[in-house]
């Protein structure tokens, strides 16, 4: 299968970009699912002064639903989320590596490797830049959810998996928790631990990161992990800037939890609902991101809600207080991103083939719905900003 086609360079120099407040916006999409109209990984020019977005090029690759950027910004990595709900059960996913030219904005394929699982849905670059961690969700119980550690070569290429961890377990929600579903991984801010979020078994698995061990880059932590509420479906974990607290979005119950971090241990301190009182529709909590200053947390919710919850973060306790809620102006807001200036929030509506740019008030955290900017893009999923 030819996963990637050539891309066209963006006609904009990095000097001009810096002078005009321009940065690059990388957008991952769905291409192979029924009804999906994405073409691959889009490179856009984003104006941090006006919030304007202009699509410039696309790297054609299959289902790049989640993307990650190397520590130096020179490489972009994307899952190839296969086989999908209608694919062959024997097919496995892959991960593609691209060289990224900041001057032109061009993506050039370096190669792709096996994800060693099905439906890879998340990527994490290790703090030292030596490994790319892949979370394989796996719709089917065979093979079930897993994670893989892919070595990152000096030129940004990926090596074959140095470690694969296969998971077993299930939860009480039939059809969603019939087996292990690893939905994301996250490193602790001190770089000592890695956490794998299992939506299927309601658990956060904990590992010591041991990159210099000749046998394995991971070792199971003594306490093994953190059990979450049965049926909650933990999805993505995010650490605060000072490393004392972490925030976890629970997809199936549409909640967000605050956890205290102490020497590798994570303890739940607070859990807040994303839905309004009396809401009775379908839910599907998805992504969460902190504002650049760490004062506000934003969490997306799909289903019939299709909105973003806005919480103020207490610096001393890490606790959350709701300050607002904003419609995503479409269906299926799976992922979103806040630009480096902190003035704009970009959200993609996967089921509506649209993305919207909201102006963000750094003082109140609220999003301005009076004049958001829309740009059309097929099945948008993930967003990453890269400085020009």
Q: What is the structure about, briefly put?
A:
The chain is built from 1 helix and 28 strands. By secondary structure, it is an all-beta fold. Residues 1-19 have low confidence and may be disordered.
Written description of the protein model:
- The structure is a single chain.
- The model is unreliable at 1-19 (pLDDT under 50).
- Strands 3-2-1-28 form a 4-stranded antiparallel sheet. Strands 4-5-6-7 form a 4-stranded antiparallel sheet, with no helix packed on it.
- β20 (285-290) and β21 (296-301) form a beta hairpin.
- 2% of the residues lie in helices and 49% in strands.
- The relative contact order is 0.13.
- It contains 1 helix and 28 strands.
- The chain has one helix at 14-19, and strands spanning 22-29, 41-47, 53-59, 67-69, 75-80, 94-100, 107-114, 120-125, 131-136, 146-151, 163-166, 182-187, 193-198, 203-209, 218-227, 234-239, 245-250, 255-262, 265-273, 285-290, 296-301, 307-313, 320-327, 333-338, 344-349, 354-360, 367-376, 380-387.
- It has 388 residues and is mainly beta.
């Amino acid at each position: 299968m030819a996963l990637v086609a050539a891309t066209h360079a963006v006609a904009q120099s990095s000097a001009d970009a810096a002078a005009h407040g321009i940065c690059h916006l990388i957008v991952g999409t769905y291409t192979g699912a029924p009804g999906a109209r994405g073409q691959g990984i889009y490179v856009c020019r984003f104006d941090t002064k006006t919030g304007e977005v202009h699509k410039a090029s696309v790297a054609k690759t299959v289902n790049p639903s989640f993307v990650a950027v190397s520590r130096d910004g020179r490489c972009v990595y994307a899952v190839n989320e296969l086989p999908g709900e209608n694919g062959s059960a024997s097919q496995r996913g892959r991960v593609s590596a691209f060289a990224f030219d900041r001057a032109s904005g061009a993506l050039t394929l370096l190669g792709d490797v096996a994800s060693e699982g099905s439906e890879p849905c998340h990527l994490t670059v290790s703090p030292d830049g030596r490994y790319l961690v892949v979370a394989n969700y796996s719709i089917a119980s065979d093979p079930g959810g897993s994670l893989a550690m892919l070595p990152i070569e000096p030129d940004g290429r990926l090596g074959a998996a140095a470690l694969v961890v296969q998971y077993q377990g299930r939860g009480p929600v039939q059809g969603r928790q019939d087996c292990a579903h690893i939905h994301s991984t996250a490193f602790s801010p001190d770089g000592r631990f890695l956490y794998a979020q299992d939506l299927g078994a309601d658990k956060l698995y904990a590992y010591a990161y041991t990159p210099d061990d000749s046998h394995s880059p991971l070792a199971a932590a003594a306490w093994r992990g953190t059990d979450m509420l049965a049926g909650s479906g933990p999805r993505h974990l995010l650490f605060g800037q000072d490393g004392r607290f972490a925030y976890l979005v629970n997809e199936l119950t549409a909640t967000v939890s605050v956890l205290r971090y102490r020497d590798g241990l994570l303890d739940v301190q607070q859990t807040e609902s994303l839905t309004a009182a009396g809401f009775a529709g379908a839910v599907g909590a998805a992504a969460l991101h902190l504002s650049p200053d760490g004062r506000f947390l934003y969490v997306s919710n799909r289903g019939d809600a299709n909105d973003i919850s806005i919480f103020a973060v207490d610096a001393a306790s890490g606790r959350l207080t709701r300050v607002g809620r904003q419609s995503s102006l479409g269906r299926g807001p799976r992922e979103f991103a806040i630009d480096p200036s902190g003035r704009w929030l970009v959200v993609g509506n996967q089921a509506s083939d649209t993305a919207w740019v909201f102006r963000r008030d750094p003082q109140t955290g609220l999003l301005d719905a009076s004049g958001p900017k829309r740009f059309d893009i097929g099945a948008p999923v993930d967003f990453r900003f890269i400085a020009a």
